[in-house]
Specification:
The protein is of the alpha+beta class. 24% of the residues lie in helices and 35% in strands.
Length: 79
């Protein structure tokens, strides 16, 4: 599984990035250019992905892993 982008923020919000945080891998920033200067943080992507993979409540939808818990949402996008 190749994760290229993650998001972590409050649950129930729009996920536009104004309150939460997107992090990209270098590959993700190059291959999935968001149209702005992305936050490249391999460590953050690895930490959030690990939390998602270890939690049995994580759901898989298309190319996303999603976990809503304790008022927060974490999402990882995979190739």
């Amino acid at each position: 599984m190749n994760v290229y982008k993650t998001y972590s923020g409050p649950n129930g919000r729009c996920m536009c990035g104004c309150v939460g945080k997107y992090s990209y891998t270098q590959h993700g920033a190059n291959a999935h250019n968001p149209g702005y200067e992305p936050n490249i943080n391999e460590r953050s992507v690895k930490i959030i992905t690990g939390k998602l993979l270890r939690n049995s409540n994580t759901k898989r939808e298309d190319d996303m892993l999603i976990l809503e818990q304790n008022g927060r949402v974490m999402v990882a996008w995979v190739d």
